[in-house]
Structures are given as C-alpha cells and as structure tokens.
Write a structure and sequence with these properties.
- This protein is α/β, with parallel strands linked by helices and about 350 residues long.
- The protein has helices at about 10-20, 25-30, 40-50, 55-65, 80-95, 110-120, 135-140, 175-185, 205-215, 230-240, 255-265, 300-315; strands spanning about 70-75, 100-105, 125-130, 150-155, 165-170, 195, 225, 245-250, 275, 295, 320-325, 325-330.
- A six-stranded parallel beta sheet has the order 2-1-3-4-5-11, with helices on both faces. The protein has a four-stranded parallel beta sheet with strand order 7-6-8-9, with helices on both faces.
- Helix 1 crosses helix 2 (about 25-30), helix 5 (about 80-95) crosses helix 12 (about 300-315) and helix 10 packs across helix 11.
C-alpha cells in the first residue's frame, strides 16, 4: 500500500484564501497592526480559528528579530520564595504578551548556568530572568556576558554580568521587612528579640539578619538554621530547655511553624510566654495556632516589576535596581510580654 503523504499544517496563505484577503493583511492582523478594519480583522481571526493556524515563531523571529519569548533560570528548590517568584514572573509575562521558557537547575556553577543560558539563546529569547536567591547564583552569572538583557530577581543588589545597563536587579526589601518586624516586637515591650537566621549563602537570609541587627534587638548572636519547619522545631525544644527568650524573629514562616509546635508540646504559651514572628506570609499562616504575625512579600507585584524591567531594557531603556516594600502583618503570635 502506498504511504499517505503527510498532512501539512495550515499556512498563512491558507488563512488568506479562506478569509478572502491578502497574505499581508493576515500578517497585519497577527501583528496587531492598527490599519486593519475591524470587520476584516474578525474575518481573518475566524479563518485562523477554523483552520487551527499557528504562526511559525522561529521564522517570525528571523524576520522581526522578536521571538515573544523570555527565558527564566530558576533553582529546583521548592521553597516558598523562589517558587512564588517563578509563578509571579509567569503571570506577569503572560499579561504583556510574552511566554516563558523555564530551566531549573540544581547546581549553580559557571558551566551549568552557561548551559542554561546558551539553551535560551538558541531559542532566540529576547531577555532572561534569573531567580538568584543564593550567592553562588550571582557569582556564576557574573562570569557570563549574556548578549541579551538580564534581570536578576534577588534582594542582593545588582549582579555584574553583561554590558552596562543590560543587567538589572529587582527584589523585595528583606532588610526593611526584618527591621520592621523586630521593631514591632521591641515596641510591644520586649527587651530582646532572638533571631533564628536562615542559611547565610542566601541573599534573603543575609538581608533579614542585617535588618534585625539594624533594629538593635538587644539579643545575643543569632542562631543560624535552615528554612525547614523541622529546624524550627528542634530549636524550639532547645530554647525551652536552655531558657526562653521573650520574643523570636524566625527565618521564615516554616521555621516559625516548627517553633510553635515545639512550644505547644512543652506547654509554652504563645504569645503569653514568648512572641513569635515569621517571614513570607505563606498560605495558611493566618490559621496557625495562634495565627502568625509575619512579613508579607507581594510576589505578583515582584513578577510584574521584574518583567517590566526586562521589557524596558529590551526596549533600550536604562533601568535602575528596584526594591519593593515588604509589609508587616500583625496577628496573634506576637503580644505584650508578661
């Protein structure tokens, strides 16, 4: 039996024939050109829908030098901050007509990052966003001179890399958020605020620690933990045995959750015996027992700001680094000391 010829996908010329217009008119509709009459536009769009036509983005990129694509390099971490940042970027990109190509990597050395960035350049992306929560991410990026604009989403400031003005940093002001949270506890009358600090190879943890110090918390050296609830639980048990502080600023909400569990098991009342404040305002933190006072980061706004900065740099503008504010959310886990 003869092998049937493969069915080719519909082309722009097929759309033009069905709609009764020229090839150029179809192109104008696809590129949202204002010169097309509304009734013609509707006829072309109806033909596109009927045929199931999809434009060839690779060919379009060759002609227009615009692919409509942005690359995002992210860690494979499931931690709240990086995961929420990625979601915010995706939503914001879609709102302005871009789609994202995402590469998650486990190891941030120069070679691994170069492979991810080279992959995006092969796809003709117009710009790249790098979710850079850790110091080694920024160090690796500094060794790669990307030929397209790059935005780093981090609280660590500007990351060196491509030519002047083509790498810009966007983040949330972790330092001010931690400072406000610490001052909230001090204003309630707590004389010392212990800080359970996150891993110091993370920019966020470094900035939160700096904010705690700026508030003059009156406490001894911070205790460095990881980001997990189990770490907060273990530290909570240790604090009960070693002597409770009157207030604790936790590295994040998960660490605060572990603290609350340890204190509950040992009969420590929050906030009567000790106040606890977290960071991130994760989903469900208002339903912890007691509801958790925490610092909220607006991840949708972060995504919009990062994509806006990247699109502006793509358009040739110079964009200054941006730090969005964090906001304190006061709930039942912080109170006046007894």
């Amino acid at each position: 039996m003869p092998v049937p010829a493969p069915v080719r996908p519909p082309a722009m010329s097929d759309v033009a024939v069905l709609a009764g217009v020229s090839h150029q008119t179809v192109s104008r509709v696809l590129n949202d050109h204002p010169s097309v009459r509304p009734e013609t536009r509707e006829r072309v769009l109806a033909a596109i829908a009927e045929l199931g036509y999809r434009r060839n983005s690779a060919a379009r990129a060759l002609v227009t030098r615009r692919s409509g694509a942005l690359g995002v390099v992210a860690t494979s971490s499931a931690h709240h901050g990086p995961a929420s940042t990625l979601l915010g970027l995706e939503r914001a990109a879609r709102e302005v007509g871009y789609f994202l190509s995402v590469a998650t990597i486990d190891r941030f050395d120069a070679g691994t990052l170069r492979g991810a960035l080279d992959h995006f350049l092969d796809q003709a992306v117009e710009g790249i966003a790098v979710i850079a929560p850790q110091v080694d991410v920024a160090d690796a990026l500094a060794e790669f001179a990307a030929p397209v604009p790059v935005v780093t989403v981090t609280s660590g400031g500007v990351v060196a890399g491509a030519g002047a003005g083509r790498v810009v940093s966007v983040g949330v002001d972790q330092r001010a958020g931690a400072r406000d949270a610490t001052r909230h506890l001090l204003d309630l009358g707590h004389r010392e605020v212990l800080h359970l600090a996150g891993p110091q190879d993370w920019f966020d943890a470094r900035e939160r620690l700096a904010g705690w110090r700026e508030a003059d918390a009156g406490a001894p050296d911070p205790v460095v933990v990881d980001w997990e609830a189990e770490s907060g639980y273990r530290e909570g048990l240790r604090l009960v045995d070693a002597g409770l502080p009157s207030a604790v600023l936790a590295a994040n909400d998960q660490v605060a959750l572990g603290l609350l569990r340890a204190f509950w098991e040992r009969g420590v009342r929050v906030p009567d015996d000790v106040s606890v404040v977290g960071f991130d305002d994760v989903a469900g933190s208002a339903f912890f027992v007691p509801p958790l006072t925490t610092v909220r980061q607006d991840f949708p706004a972060l995504g919009r700001s990062a994509i806006d900065a990247l699109v502006r740099v793509i358009g040739g503008e110079e964009v200054a680094p941006t730090l969005l504010p964090a906001s304190l959310v006061v709930r039942g886990s912080s109170g006046v000391p007894r």
